[in-house]
Design brief:
By secondary structure, the protein is mainly beta. It contains one helix and 21 strands. Helix content is 2%, strand content 43%.
Length: 319
Amino acid sequence: MTRFTTLPDLALRTLGGAVVAASDESFAEKESLVRPGRPGFRPGTFGHKGQVYDGWETRRRRAPGHDWALVRLGVPGVIRGVAIDTAWFKGNYPPYATVEAARVEGHPSPGELAAASWTEIVPRAALKGDAEHHFEVTGELHATHVRLNIFPDGGVARLRVHGEPRPDLSVYDGLGLDLAALANGGIVTGCSDDFYSAPHNVIAPGLARHQAEGWETARRRDDGNDWLVIRLAGRGVPRLAEIDTTNLLFNAPAAVALTGFDGEPGTAAPVELLPRTRLQPDTPHRFRLAAATPVTHVRVDIHPDGGLARVRLHGHLTP
């Protein structure tokens, strides 16, 4: 698997992503492009528009031009890679696609987006039917929106836009915030194990609906423990930690510890934020943190293994 796919999907609907406009969606709705999960399919399932697809599908184009969809990223950021998935589209997929990106501040309308300055991040590429295509993106463009262009028409099941979150935090000046939240620019930079589910799930918005929407490790058979490292949204002082084991009934960790670093772990001195503390299964825990030292990274150690639904680190950014 391409390395960029381990980064968060900035366009995901559960992060606030949306398809704000499309040239056409005659056969299947544009909103499907940013849905979470793998595309589904039930053969022989027909509606009044034809076979039902879990994706975006346009009509057969009889005029010059091509179809397109405008996507607002749920979290603005630097795009490191794009995945275009044509799952289940076998005789109706587009033969070619490009992807463009733009940075447009505020809350632009579709018309304002159409008039924006766009930069091509995925040049014209050939697509296959019923396949996932990965395209690495270079450069440091800070994007808020992307535009998927398909040539000339057809169906795409999912569009994944993987990257590093870089939202505007100026709205929080003078206020507290969740320093770990992916939506605020937090990101998991390392973890010991992600056998059952991805570690960046623990900093996703909202509550986990089931254990697969958290982070869960394999069972350890040694004397060690599992861990992850969160690079905070910015240098700050975390004062309240929320460690949520909701939905983890028989696989919650026995204990947790939090260690802060003002710089990369391994080079910066450790700061104890929360000593090893007992956890309960299927329970939201809240712990006040005594240390008032600014940090940029927090290591979450779970003992010995198991899963966490969410980790929140509330505090204030440093000036």
